[in-house]
Every structure is written in C-alpha cells, then in structure tokens.
Amino acid sequence: MASKKGSDKPAYKRILLKLSGEVLAGEDEVIDPILTKRIAEQVAEIHSLGVQIAIVIGGGNIWRGVTPSHKGMDRSTADYMGMLATIINGLGLQDALEKVGVVTRVQTAMEVKNVAEPFIRRRALRHMEKGRIVIFVAGTGNPYFSTDTTSALRASEINAEIILKATKVDGIYDSDPKKNPNAKRYTHITYLEALQRRLMVMDSTAFSLCMDNKVPIIVFDMFKPGNLRAVVLGKTVGTLVSDKP
User: Fold this and answer.
1) Contact call for residues 213 and 159 (beta carbons, < 8 A)
2) How many folded domains does the chain comprise?
3) Residue 4 domain-assigned?
4) Is the dihedral of CA 74, 92, 114, 120 positive or negative?
5) What is the pLDDT of residues 162-204, one digit of tens each?
6) Is the Cα torsion angle 223, 229, 232, 233 positive or negative in sign?
7) Measured by CB atoms within 10 angstroms of the end CB, which terminus of the chain is less buried, N or C?
8) pTM for this one?
9) Is residue 8 part of a domain?
10) CB contact set of 32 (below 8 Å; sequence gap of 6+)
C-alpha cells in the first residue's frame, strides 16, 4: 500500500517495527542513551502521523544465545539469558520513548511483573488503539526461537499490515555487500525466493510464518535520516519481501 506522492498520509495503519539490540549500542556502552534517544525520536515522528506501532527488540548488544551455545553452554539456558537481555533493552527503549512524549507499554513473554505486563493479545491491541506504543520483549518465551520469528508471530497476532525490519544496510543483497562490491540489492523478492536463496536477513522460520500469514516485510537502513518516515509513507525504500513476484 503506497501513499500518494508528496502526501504525509501514512501508507499503513498498524505496523510492527523489528529492532536488533545492536541498534542501541554505542562504542563503549551496551545501551547508548544518545543512540536510543535518536531511535525514540524517529519512532515518535511516525507515531505522530497516527500510525499504531508495536516493536519487537532483540538482545544481541547484551547477549546472543546462539553464540554461547556453540561454545558448549546449554542452548536453552543461553536462549533464556538472551530473552532477559531483550527485557533490559525494552525497558531502555520505553524510557527513551516516554521522555519524548510517547506513552509506551512493555509486554513480556516471560513473567517479570514488577517491570512489565504479560503479553496479552487483546490488551496489546487496546493499547495501540489508544495511541500507545507496545514493545514486545522476551521473544516468544521459548528457547530455539529468534526475535525475527517473534516479529512474524506477533505481527500475525496483532494483524499488523507490515513488518519493518530495521538494519544497518539498505536492503537485502544477493551476497554480502561488505565483502562483494558487486553485490546486487533487491528492491523486491518473494518469501520463497528468500528461503531458496538462503538470504539470512531473517531466519527461515520467520520467513515461513510471514509467508503463511501473508505479512509483508520491508528491510531498510534505520540509520539513514528520514528512512523510517519514508517507509511509513509508502515510498520505495530498502527491499520488500512479499508473496507476489
């Protein structure tokens, strides 16, 4: 769904924004207050357009469960630690958003009732309908599932029109653009092509879930000024992944 050229009318009513934990990290801090504030300001800008926003945030700036499990730690334990890291990030992002004037709720798939609500779908929908941003943390609450899969699951549950996956690159490439200067960037690719070509911008479970529930994905560079707003206004930014060739 695209907006008219020059229009400030958003192309989507409800979105799910997927943020990696690394977007909060600075050179010397796992959660950099300045970077976190910049992200909050960008999110607040699209919120002011009337868009209903849910966010899924990762924990890789603090702990990445897969890596320790490869070094001998029990995979389930490592993943639960990663879920706790996402809760820390979610609280940090909530603080930044509320400091720029956006009422925010954190909902968790693991019970931590002193700091966050449990994930309840109908409550999340009600929050968004009231203009609050909802941050989903602790993944799905289960080991062996990534926050990309969480994004696909939560987007399906809340009937989000699209997943916006914020990265540090400007879309999906056929090979690593850092290693191959001739790498080709896709403007559009289907879920099936992404799975067949093993394009690892999201894991296969996440792609499959989006494909089954027809939830499109846009992969874009969050760090280019104005990109998030441009995506929400329906402009061609990054790479679209959908069911249509």
Assistant:
1) no
2) 1
3) no
4) negative
5) 999 998 888 999 888 888 889 999 999 999 998 888 887 888 9
6) negative
7) C
8) 0.92
9) no
10) 24, 25, 26
